[in-house]
Amino acid sequence: DTAVSQTPKYLVTQMGNDKSIKCEQNLGHDTMYWYKQDSKKFLKIMFSYNNKELIINETVPNRFSPKSPDKAHLNLHINSLELGDSAVYFCASSPRGANYGYTFGSGTRLTVV
Amino acid sequence: AQSVTQLDSHVSVSEGTPVLLRCNYSSSYSPSLFWYVQHPNKGLQLLLKYTSAATLVKGINGFEAEFKKSETSFHLTKPSAHMSDAAEYFCVVSELGSNDYKLSFGAGTTVTVRA
Known about the structure:
The complex is a heterodimer of chains A (about 110) and B (about 120).
Chain A: E1 4-7, E2 10-13, E3 19-25, E4 31-37, E5 43-50, E6 53-57, E7 64-70, E8 73-78, E9 87-94, E10 103-104, E11 108-112
Parallel strand pairs in A: 2-11
Antiparallel strand pairs in A: 1-3, 3-8, 4-5, 4-9, 5-6, 7-8, 9-10, 9-11
Chain B: E1 3-6, E2 10-14, E3 19-21, E4 23-26, E5 33-38, E6 44-50, E7 56-58, E8 64-68, E9 73-78, E10 87-96, E11 101-105, E12 109-114
Parallel strand pairs in B: 2-12
Antiparallel strand pairs in B: 1-4, 3-9, 5-6, 5-10, 7-8, 8-9, 10-11, 10-12
């Protein structure tokens, strides 16, 4: 009955590899997001999708490619991983609009070695 | 444009004493504001939100926050800290970007609770 679920929870991989993180929400929300939390715990939005359409793309390297097969799923694919990509990545969802907080997943801790 | 500033990077309190986490925002219009909590190695949980209704907002776990437009503040308080309140707290503003609203996070305040 998890509202926003991400897999995997932990991901350790070598530089140069390609990896994906999956996210699913069962709340019926129209909008989904990816946030990156750095080592200083600062959270910054990467992407948002509304009903499968890309809405926000916050100057993220094009090695990062989100894909939304339907409005309940938003996956994040990362090509040619770099050391600086190490972070915790959070998926979130919300109804569309200013007044709604987001429901966050539990995060994926990515470590690039 | 909007932004949010958390005035304290770290707050340490004794169990049973009040907690005050300070947050100021800058906004050209009436914002929607939120507080989120992140316990160690956990995800983010919504504590409370302000969306232009009552200025004193009550949240979960005994927390509340007061929206003060004249001071552009949204400080978070709790009358009596519990050990389980030790966590990272984020003040958040809903911000209109080029295409849609997004949540912009403050830098966070780490709360330590002493026994």
